[in-house]
Write a structure and sequence with these properties.
- The protein is mainly alpha-helical.
- The chain folds into 2 domains: 96 residues; 82 residues.
- 55% of the residues lie in helices and 5% in strands.
Protein backbone atom coordinates (compact mmCIF):
# COMPACT_ATOMS: atom_id res chain seq x y z
CA UNK A 1 0.00 0.00 0.00
CA UNK A 2 1.30 3.41 -0.98
CA UNK A 3 0.63 6.74 0.70
CA UNK A 4 -2.05 7.35 -1.93
CA UNK A 5 -3.65 3.97 -1.17
CA UNK A 6 -3.58 4.69 2.56
CA UNK A 7 -5.25 8.07 2.02
CA UNK A 8 -7.97 6.53 -0.15
CA UNK A 9 -8.63 3.71 2.30
CA UNK A 10 -8.69 6.08 5.27
CA UNK A 11 -11.32 8.24 3.59
CA UNK A 12 -13.61 5.42 2.40
CA UNK A 13 -13.15 2.84 5.16
CA UNK A 14 -12.70 2.70 8.91
CA UNK A 15 -10.39 0.68 11.08
CA UNK A 16 -11.89 -2.36 12.72
CA UNK A 17 -11.07 -0.84 16.12
CA UNK A 18 -12.86 2.43 15.29
CA UNK A 19 -15.91 0.54 14.05
CA UNK A 20 -15.99 -1.62 17.18
CA UNK A 21 -15.71 1.47 19.40
CA UNK A 22 -18.43 3.34 17.49
CA UNK A 23 -20.85 0.43 17.84
CA UNK A 24 -19.86 -0.55 21.41
CA UNK A 25 -18.62 -3.95 20.21
CA UNK A 26 -15.57 -5.90 21.27
CA UNK A 27 -13.00 -5.81 18.45
CA UNK A 28 -11.86 -9.36 19.24
CA UNK A 29 -15.47 -10.56 18.96
CA UNK A 30 -15.62 -9.02 15.47
CA UNK A 31 -12.39 -10.77 14.51
CA UNK A 32 -13.82 -14.07 15.73
CA UNK A 33 -16.93 -13.48 13.60
CA UNK A 34 -14.63 -12.98 10.60
CA UNK A 35 -12.83 -16.24 11.32
CA UNK A 36 -16.19 -18.00 11.78
CA UNK A 37 -17.38 -16.83 8.30
CA UNK A 38 -19.98 -14.49 9.75
CA UNK A 39 -18.34 -11.21 8.73
CA UNK A 40 -16.07 -10.29 5.82
CA UNK A 41 -12.34 -10.17 6.34
CA UNK A 42 -10.82 -6.66 6.32
CA UNK A 43 -10.92 -5.12 2.85
CA UNK A 44 -7.52 -3.49 3.21
CA UNK A 45 -4.52 -3.55 5.52
CA UNK A 46 -3.13 -0.04 5.65
CA UNK A 47 0.67 0.32 5.58
CA UNK A 48 0.59 0.98 9.35
CA UNK A 49 -1.07 -2.42 9.85
CA UNK A 50 -4.59 -1.11 10.53
CA UNK A 51 -7.30 -3.53 9.42
CA UNK A 52 -9.69 -1.44 7.35
CA UNK A 53 -13.33 -2.42 6.90
CA UNK A 54 -16.46 -0.94 5.36
CA UNK A 55 -18.05 1.71 7.55
CA UNK A 56 -21.36 -0.18 7.30
CA UNK A 57 -19.80 -3.60 7.95
CA UNK A 58 -22.22 -4.40 10.78
CA UNK A 59 -25.40 -3.31 8.98
CA UNK A 60 -26.06 -6.75 7.48
CA UNK A 61 -25.68 -8.31 10.93
CA UNK A 62 -28.37 -5.91 12.12
CA UNK A 63 -30.62 -6.69 9.15
CA UNK A 64 -30.29 -10.42 9.83
CA UNK A 65 -30.78 -9.84 13.56
CA UNK A 66 -27.48 -11.46 14.45
CA UNK A 67 -24.50 -13.40 13.19
CA UNK A 68 -26.12 -16.82 13.57
CA UNK A 69 -28.90 -15.92 11.14
CA UNK A 70 -26.78 -13.92 8.69
CA UNK A 71 -25.90 -16.75 6.25
CA UNK A 72 -29.53 -17.82 5.88
CA UNK A 73 -30.75 -14.22 5.62
CA UNK A 74 -28.09 -13.48 3.00
CA UNK A 75 -28.98 -16.60 0.97
CA UNK A 76 -32.64 -15.55 0.84
CA UNK A 77 -31.61 -12.35 -0.95
CA UNK A 78 -30.60 -14.29 -4.09
CA UNK A 79 -32.74 -16.02 -6.72
CA UNK A 80 -30.67 -19.22 -6.68
CA UNK A 81 -28.64 -21.17 -4.15
CA UNK A 82 -25.65 -21.26 -6.51
CA UNK A 83 -25.63 -17.49 -6.84
CA UNK A 84 -26.11 -17.09 -3.07
CA UNK A 85 -23.10 -19.29 -2.30
CA UNK A 86 -20.89 -17.55 -4.86
CA UNK A 87 -21.82 -14.09 -3.58
CA UNK A 88 -21.50 -15.15 0.08
CA UNK A 89 -17.96 -16.39 -0.58
CA UNK A 90 -17.10 -13.14 -2.36
CA UNK A 91 -18.67 -11.13 0.46
CA UNK A 92 -16.69 -12.98 3.14
CA UNK A 93 -13.40 -12.51 1.29
CA UNK A 94 -13.42 -8.78 2.12
CA UNK A 95 -12.50 -8.07 -1.49
CA UNK A 96 -15.95 -6.70 -2.34
CA UNK A 97 -14.56 -3.17 -2.52
CA UNK A 98 -16.44 -2.29 -5.68
CA UNK A 99 -19.51 -0.95 -3.89
CA UNK A 100 -20.07 2.08 -1.71
CA UNK A 101 -22.37 -0.09 0.41
CA UNK A 102 -22.03 -3.87 0.22
CA UNK A 103 -25.60 -5.10 0.38
CA UNK A 104 -27.21 -7.94 -1.56
CA UNK A 105 -29.39 -5.47 -3.47
CA UNK A 106 -26.34 -3.41 -4.52
CA UNK A 107 -24.42 -6.58 -5.37
CA UNK A 108 -27.27 -7.77 -7.62
CA UNK A 109 -27.69 -4.34 -9.20
CA UNK A 110 -23.99 -4.07 -9.96
CA UNK A 111 -24.08 -7.47 -11.69
CA UNK A 112 -27.08 -6.40 -13.78
CA UNK A 113 -25.53 -3.05 -14.70
CA UNK A 114 -22.15 -4.55 -15.64
CA UNK A 115 -23.85 -7.11 -17.90
CA UNK A 116 -26.08 -4.45 -19.48
CA UNK A 117 -23.16 -2.11 -20.17
CA UNK A 118 -21.12 -4.97 -21.64
CA UNK A 119 -24.06 -5.88 -23.90
CA UNK A 120 -24.28 -2.26 -25.10
CA UNK A 121 -20.54 -2.22 -25.82
CA UNK A 122 -20.77 -5.48 -27.78
CA UNK A 123 -23.06 -3.75 -30.28
CA UNK A 124 -22.05 -0.08 -30.19
CA UNK A 125 -24.07 2.53 -32.05
CA UNK A 126 -22.51 5.84 -30.98
CA UNK A 127 -24.24 7.84 -33.71
CA UNK A 128 -27.62 6.84 -32.26
CA UNK A 129 -28.57 9.34 -29.56
CA UNK A 130 -31.00 6.88 -27.92
CA UNK A 131 -28.25 4.23 -27.67
CA UNK A 132 -25.83 6.79 -26.24
CA UNK A 133 -28.33 8.05 -23.65
CA UNK A 134 -29.23 4.50 -22.61
CA UNK A 135 -25.56 3.59 -22.25
CA UNK A 136 -24.88 6.69 -20.16
CA UNK A 137 -27.92 6.03 -17.98
CA UNK A 138 -26.48 2.61 -17.12
CA UNK A 139 -22.99 4.04 -16.58
CA UNK A 140 -24.34 6.82 -14.33
CA UNK A 141 -26.22 4.30 -12.22
CA UNK A 142 -23.12 2.13 -11.85
CA UNK A 143 -21.09 5.23 -10.98
CA UNK A 144 -23.54 6.03 -8.17
CA UNK A 145 -22.96 2.69 -6.42
CA UNK A 146 -19.22 2.22 -7.06
CA UNK A 147 -16.42 4.02 -5.23
CA UNK A 148 -13.33 5.35 -7.02
CA UNK A 149 -11.15 2.34 -6.00
CA UNK A 150 -7.63 2.50 -4.59
CA UNK A 151 -4.68 2.33 -7.01
CA UNK A 152 -3.75 -0.87 -5.15
CA UNK A 153 -6.96 -2.51 -6.39
CA UNK A 154 -5.61 -2.56 -9.95
CA UNK A 155 -2.67 -4.63 -8.68
CA UNK A 156 -4.59 -7.07 -6.55
CA UNK A 157 -7.28 -7.66 -9.16
CA UNK A 158 -4.74 -7.96 -11.96
CA UNK A 159 -5.60 -4.98 -14.12
CA UNK A 160 -8.36 -2.48 -14.76
CA UNK A 161 -11.29 -2.60 -12.34
CA UNK A 162 -14.95 -2.29 -13.28
CA UNK A 163 -14.85 1.49 -12.78
CA UNK A 164 -12.00 1.77 -15.30
CA UNK A 165 -13.61 -0.47 -17.91
CA UNK A 166 -17.31 0.27 -17.52
CA UNK A 167 -17.44 3.87 -16.32
CA UNK A 168 -14.30 5.88 -17.07
CA UNK A 169 -13.39 4.19 -20.38
CA UNK A 170 -16.99 4.28 -21.58
CA UNK A 171 -17.31 7.98 -20.83
CA UNK A 172 -14.00 8.64 -22.57
CA UNK A 173 -14.80 6.52 -25.63
CA UNK A 174 -18.48 7.40 -25.95
CA UNK A 175 -18.97 10.93 -24.64
CA UNK A 176 -22.55 12.09 -24.37
CA UNK A 177 -21.90 14.77 -26.97
CA UNK A 178 -19.64 14.91 -29.94
CA UNK A 179 -18.58 11.30 -30.50
CA UNK A 180 -19.98 11.13 -34.00
CA UNK A 181 -18.48 14.53 -34.74
CA UNK A 182 -14.87 13.50 -33.98
CA UNK A 183 -12.67 15.13 -36.59
CA UNK A 184 -10.30 13.21 -38.79
CA UNK A 185 -7.37 15.01 -37.13
CA UNK A 186 -8.27 13.74 -33.67
CA UNK A 187 -6.22 10.87 -32.30
CA UNK A 188 -7.89 7.50 -32.76
CA UNK A 189 -9.59 6.13 -29.65
CA UNK A 190 -8.41 3.01 -27.92
CA UNK A 191 -11.69 1.83 -26.55
CA UNK A 192 -13.24 -1.14 -24.88
Amino acid sequence: MTTEDDAYVSSWYTSLEELADSRARDVDELRLLMLANRLPLPSYIRSDGAQMVAKDLLDLLDAAEGSDDLPEWFAKQWPSAVEAVREWDDYLSGRYVCLRSVTPSNMRRKNVLCAAIAAQLNDPDPDNEAWLEHLHGLVDELDAIEPPFAPYDRLRFGGPVSRDRLIDDVRRCFPREGLSRQSATDEPRTCV
